[in-house]
Write a structure and sequence with these properties.
Elements lengths: L2 H19 L6 H21 L10 H27 L4
Length: 89
């Protein structure tokens, strides 16, 4: 896929996942970055479980990327909550 296709897929997947996980999004740039990382993770998870990964921008690719983005966001928020939640005495 081209760089533009990965950005488009990342934007869509990151936007959907951010709104499903925390109902407000993280901002456009962070949504794209989280979506691209999530698309990579989603493709890897799909491959591990025996499904086709992401080859083109289609509904299957969007679903795989969104599931990966949701999984990545849960980990991202758990780490962020622990790091931000700590106080320095």
């Amino acid at each position: 896929m081209s760089l533009f296709a990965w950005l488009l897929l990342g934007l869509l997947a990151g936007f959907i996942a951010s709104h499903l996980v925390n109902h407000r999004g993280e901002g456009m740039i962070l949504d794209i970055l989280l979506g691209i990382v999530g698309a990579i993770i989603g493709g890897w998870l799909a491959h591990i479980f025996g499904f086709a990964g992401i080859t083109t921008v289609n509904l299957h690719g969007l679903i795989v990327a969104t599931v990966g983005s949701i999984a990545f966001l849960f980990v991202y928020h758990a780490i962020r909550r622990n790091v931000v939640g700590r106080r320095v005495l």
